[in-house]
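Help! Submission page says 'invalid entity' but I think these are all valid:
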Amino acid sequence: MRVVELIERKRDGGTLSVAEIDFLVQGFTKDEIPDYQMSAFAMAVVLRGMSAKETAALTASMVASGERLDLSRFGRVVDKHSTGGVGDKTTLVVAPLVAACGAPVAKMSGRGLGFSGGTLDKLESFAGYRVDLTTAQLLAQLERVGIVVTGQTADLAPADGKLYALRDVTGTVPAIPLIASSIMSKKIAAGAHAVVLDVKVGSGAFMKDRASAAALARTMVAIGVAHGLAVTCELTDMEQPLGLAVGNALEVQEAIAALRREGPADLVRLVRLAGAEMLVRGRRARDLASALVRIDRAIADGSGLAKLRELVAAQGGDERMVDEPSRLPAAPRIEVLRAPRTAYVAAVAADRIGIASVHLGAGREKKGDPIDLRTGIVLRAKVGDRVERGEPYAEVHVAERAGDREAIDLVRGAFRWSAARVPRRRLVLGRIASR
Amino acid sequence: MRVVELIERKRDGGTLSVAEIDFLVQGFTKDEIPDYQMSAFAMAVVLRGMSAKETAALTASMVASGERLDLSRFGRVVDKHSTGGVGDKTTLVVAPLVAACGAPVAKMSGRGLGFSGGTLDKLESFAGYRVDLTTAQLLAQLERVGIVVTGQTADLAPADGKLYALRDVTGTVPAIPLIASSIMSKKIAAGAHAVVLDVKVGSGAFMKDRASAAALARTMVAIGVAHGLAVTCELTDMEQPLGLAVGNALEVQEAIAALRREGPADLVRLVRLAGAEMLVRGRRARDLASALVRIDRAIADGSGLAKLRELVAAQGGDERMVDEPSRLPAAPRIEVLRAPRTAYVAAVAADRIGIASVHLGAGREKKGDPIDLRTGIVLRAKVGDRVERGEPYAEVHVAERAGDREAIDLVRGAFRWSAARVPRRRLVLGRIASR
């Protein structure tokens, strides 16, 4: 097999066989195929696409490039994944709830990049929380506590890690087959039997429109089916941030509130939906209705919150922070933005809020940048809310950084106002699922 | 300037500024921009194209990456270039003729690759002929003899050399802006004031159809104009080989025959046309008609042949071979193919003849492969010719190689026959030129 011929075929819009894709992926992983050939191939994929069969083969090859966790002794394990958005702290709420309902949760999460926050960063708000568990530690904790939220281990889908690093520096990130196979290869390698996915749509998400989000969702469902996984994919709104808090410790605080029945409506709605889907896909509930009852009970009886406490303690974090959120890292100063006149919120641009959070130090511009756990934005109003003149509509939690002024301006500019009443935004835009 | 942003812009169909293209080319030449970014960029160019302005800028950057010959003391210097085809020995005939007419010819040629022969390989049929002249030697010989045909020197357009090597292994060769800028950057760096180009069209050429050949021609003319060069571009047929001989020493023999008024009609036609265009572009003739008279005289009076003799001698080759072609390398055996029945030749597939020549050892599959100067194919009939049953229609000059059988079958398969009369093919398909 000649690499150039495979690149040429893709360049000309043709398709590669399963064996040809595996040849590329394994050769690349073993450094037998150089970066410059793989990046040309990736660009051809960005511009020419891949068939469903090719995408499934790419995923399988990336899974086969490393180890694959066997979690079958825990019964049916359901993973979750969000494509990332501004203020998305769903995992922090839904993982403990689902675990409290008896479904094992072994979640490998990532760090934040750009305006998209990372679950690992957020969890590190709990002083001492460890995100670098070994596979053995992960398995032991899953056995003992029923829940683990840690970083990706290097031995799972190493081809994906290597390919992603190359795509990141060669302008070849935005290709649905590459995005879908990257996500799914990690889920499959991590031992999931089912996956509940949340594809965010809007200015604060990677997918800006419903059509491309649906295409990504369909591709991931197809990959799952090809690998024997049940997959549910929700398409949810990311034109405005999810919930009210954006920033690491601020989001942890909101997640804890949600586990105490004090969460904002949209976050709670999404958490209940994702949690119920996970219970159904994990065969811990007969149908969505009964699953929702169980999720609601785990919120009402405090068992979800207890599970978060157990998780934090198991991974070395300061569990007192769960019950006393005032112990969480906090910014030294809060700038309160007040409405210049009474009006309805017409829009809260998620991308601007996200970029503002990066300026505040709560997010990274590039990999490896340090992060400030304390800073961020707390919305006091969302689309459809009426704000009286002089009342606060947002708080900016600042730590005296060079970017503070720009961040505050961005938050101010993110709000669009209307004299007339504005309907609330629909949160759930669609659902694409395997049988 | 961030490289990734430039790649992304081209990927998304945008255009780059002159400064941005120069940043990429110079960074790449200095090894500051890695191959994997440049290959992704090249693939984006293959699939998204480049504007005329971008293409001119790319050419200028490649010229600026190295030295540029100053030939102005020789007056107006005209270069020629063919995009390559099967049996194209035009340079061997036209360069001596033009030089004999008093126009200085400093031609840098290449080696053969794939089914496209290289002028340097052909010239090496003259025992001892040197193709590695230094710039100083080139200038001295041009002064003394008025003609030089040698290899590309490394200090001209090094960016083109580096980029071409990368394109060759990343499936990014077939992009008109990249092909055009590669050709033109070398001509400009080599000091040409005008260029006469021959873009081959057909199965035996890189450009398979007239539309893409015309696009390449227009692009090269535009680059020339942007750099102050006069450019004439002929589009010529490459569905069947040019002339009758295909193979190194065989083509040299045919070229010598053409200089002795014994050349095949299509080759002579092309030589006269290209030679006359060169004289006009070099301002050694008022118009094409008077230029053709001079070219014809240089054939008739033997001054063209004398100039070839001088060239061969000046570059250390055995000049006796010019007058006694029997001294040229010859294959040990000739397989003669005879017509199974009387018929007209309907097609002689240039690509099959070219591939056959590679099997015979007359061409290379990959760079650096050794070449057999002796072997090749001599057609005894071309499209439109009538061949009587039992008469030869082709000779295959073999040197007892593993690929001989396949080569002979390819030559046989290259011929299509017709019981009815078939018109001859049109040789010149079009002309695109600057003013």
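Support: the input was valid. A stray whitespace character was the problem, and the output above is from the cleaned input. The two ends of chain B are 38 Å apart (CA to CA).
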